[in-house]
C-alpha cells in the first residue's frame, strides 16, 4: 500500500475517533 494512501487512512481513522470522543 502506498505511503500516501496509508497516511490518509490513518488521518481519517484518527479524525473519526476524535469526533466520536468529542460527541460523547
UniProtKB/TrEMBL annotation:
This is Auxin efflux carrier component.
Amino acid at each position: 500500500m502506498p505511503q500516501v494512501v496509508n497516511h490518509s487512512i490513518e488521518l481519517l481513522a484518527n479524525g473519526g475517533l476524535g469526533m466520536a470522543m468529542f460527541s460523547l
